[in-house]
Design a protein that fits this description.
- The protein is built from ten helices and no strands.
- The protein is an all-alpha fold.
């Protein structure tokens, strides 16, 4: 009897577990959930996130043109919310980082998995930031605080459906080599990690928390 095929979501989760664990040790991410995070640190991180997402997401969407349901998930909402947060604080955008190579829908699906997964983790961070800095949706916290639990659950379910119905071939199945979407997801995690490790959170630690009250 042939074994049951492993879902693409399960392959992605298993194939990126170590890369996912490493990114969580990046100092900028550690500071986001620190009890003494300063507002300036938060703003610096927002600037880097806006540069990352506003550059990466259109590039991924362009590679998903043949998979409209997947491309539609990159609706610009994350870059838009980040731009709103920067505008609230009067912080300028930064130049975007150099992107990893993304060619073809399989690679783009791997990147999409990482992008969407970051949104789930962001909800936990959002609750902490709301309590520690007083930010909220529409007031400096739209990126981290702008999605409720039901919306997050629906987006993840939608991603799972997109992965399973995409029609891409698992060309490396049975060869001992990770499918292209898993390899791409690992590369995207590594790209995120490099970006986060470049963030100098100390540069923003002098800002005062009172600045969260008004733009």
């Amino acid at each position: 009897m042939m074994p049951e095929p492993i879902s693409r979501m399960a392959q992605l989760r298993a194939g990126t577990q170590d890369a996912h664990a490493r990114i969580e040790t990046a100092p900028a991410l550690v500071r986001l959930i620190a009890p003494d995070i300063a507002l300036g640190e938060y703003i610096v991180i927002l600037q880097h996130l806006q540069a990352l997402h506003s550059h990466l997401e259109p590039a991924v969407a362009a590679e998903l043109e043949t998979l409209p349901a997947a491309a539609a998930m990159l609706d610009g909402s994350r870059p838009r919310r980040l731009a709103e947060d920067l505008a609230w604080f009067g912080a300028p955008p930064l130049a975007p980082p150099a992107l990893p190579e993304l060619v073809g829908p399989a690679a783009a699906l791997g990147a999409l998995y990482v992008i969407e997964g970051s949104g789930l983790g962001g909800r936990v961070i959002g609750r902490h930031l709301a309590a520690s800095l007083g930010v909220r949706g529409g007031a400096g916290g739209s990126f981290f605080c702008g999605m409720d639990a039901e919306s997050a659950r629906l987006r993840w379910s939608r991603l799972n459906a997109v992965l399973e119905t995409s029609g891409i071939d698992d060309l490396s199945a049975g060869t001992g080599v990770a499918p292209g979407y898993v390899a791409s997801a690992r590369e995207t995690f590594e790209f995120f990690e490099r970006c986060f490790r470049r963030i100098d959170v100390a540069a923003g630690s002098g800002r005062v928390m009172a600045e969260a009250v008004a733009p």
